[in-house]
């Protein structure tokens, strides 16, 4: 990459974050009446569903705290982060079992809890940033406690009805992957003592059970012992997810200066790019089948925003860490395709849901799944990487 | 419709059923080793997942029995129906609570039970046809018992973890709609004594809670008292589903000679056609928003096979019952669009999942949701209607 390209990309990400993404969400998603954030927004920012998702409460709170801690200590960011944390503390928990809700009404009435505990992991990193920003020990306690509950619930989901019987036990990539990212965040924000242990353990889980060198792929779901399950669910790969996991591991390799981890992350990226990049239309496909058979999920060939975000980070980071020109080429391919199709030129931010050919399927800007997270995290992370590349 | 058009359509449906759809499923889906049916098939009929869905076990068994009883008493159809019923009896039930599974392994190991009881409703009509075909009272007992369990579970789902809290109670169109169709089938096959009562009660439920004359629409989901819930789920309309319900009511009107029911069914069809017909590309959209806002479900603008099947039946039946030329025009529109895009010219049967523009999204012929049901039921029902129109 030329210095000019680095500078131009840096400005695209930095200015996109500070002048487009963040203002869009601050302007439209902040609930001044009941606190917290409403992320179900039409293309122009109009609220189209007042319900609140706990994932997005945690994620936006984390983002605001992260920006305060990493970019500059703007009071507005901190105030909004504290308001997000207040809403989570007040309305995020089911007093009957201490678990977090997934979906509540505008004023915090509970609607739905899920079998999984990702509300907990996102709230943990949010509280962690607030500890770092304010020094209040309560935030660190909450962060630590929620990380523990996230781990405990995933390892042993007590009192939670399971979707499947025990006939065919499975393990999913999501838990070890999110554990890595959550522990990385909490190591940085609250100095989580056993962060390294959880990161090592999760990387080992991914390596042992989900990586299949003979098939050149990262399995999203495997049997309890890592066996390939030759059924729809078992064969379904989610390349964008595996690529997200790849850059969490690349990041760890970068921090530790560990060549082996960098190699592992690159391998996951390489295999998943080969399987997920749509050579016909461009962009990363949502799902593909291990053996090229039809996928059962209806939206398998759509282009969602977040797999593109994660691939933009992963390819740039792989290039920074290896200098391999292949990654610069891939980064340009995915960056150019994403920026040609996702940004809303009229109202700002990105569309979330495109057809395979890049045409818009839905003009939604947000819902309980799409909020201020993957796009701004990409913008922030790539800005930081490019800044290092520039001065390096 | 001219006599020539009637004759030509009749042959399309009849020959499609007997020479294409049915042979495809009998050739590829029958499990000679473990009994029952494997419906997860690639475009050429290759089995791509050996798991079995209880919906499809019941539906294929019903279809075979219905053909035996309505078309001609072919021994092969009866033998296969009995094999389907055997598999359901042996492997369909959880002995711990008597409820039916949704998803089992090839040899009947339980994988998943759902919160709903539609496995029960489809098994009920299957056993009903087998009673009619064989006169064995055990089949009638099973049919009656399963209808009871279907009703009881829907009205009071004991021991079943609910997806949502009680904060915002909802009622869904599916239960009253499927109750009508199930009771109609069981009235015919086993002379279910309270069929008429359940049909009347279900039509009244739909009329009172789901029909909104001021908005000209049939709501898929409403509040417990029928209120519009101005959230994603509450605003999401499923026109193909409402049209399916419309023809169940038209059918009841036809059987009873009840003009008011015919009027009701036509109203549901008219409103749902206006909202669901894709005037840009043709075909019935999967989901649309009550107020034209973005829909949250990712596949909202895809064209699935079954909404087209149900609309082909509904428009033809509405034409037969009213003589209104509008319905003949709509029937031709939906028939022509569906037949131009869904049939697989190479391997037979229909594709299930097209993009909005009619291009193929997945070459899947079947899975736990798509099996020998909507298409052959359409072919059989339209053949019967056209036969009446021809001789009438």
TrEMBL record, chains A, B:
<protein>
    <submittedName>
        <fullName>Cellobiose 2-epimerase</fullName>
        <ecNumber>5.1.3.11</ecNumber>
    </submittedName>
</protein>
<dbReference type="GO" id="GO:0047736">
    <property type="term" value="F:cellobiose epimerase activity"/>
</dbReference>
<dbReference type="InterPro" id="IPR012341">
    <property type="entry name" value="6hp_glycosidase-like_sf"/>
</dbReference>
<dbReference type="InterPro" id="IPR008928">
    <property type="entry name" value="6-hairpin_glycosidase_sf"/>
</dbReference>
<dbReference type="Pfam" id="PF07221">
    <property type="entry name" value="GlcNAc_2-epim"/>
</dbReference>
<dbReference type="GO" id="GO:0005975">
    <property type="term" value="P:carbohydrate metabolic process"/>
</dbReference>
<comment type="similarity">
    <text>Belongs to the N-acylglucosamine 2-epimerase family.</text>
</comment>
<dbReference type="InterPro" id="IPR010819">
    <property type="entry name" value="AGE/CE"/>
</dbReference>
<keyword id="KW-0413">Isomerase</keyword>
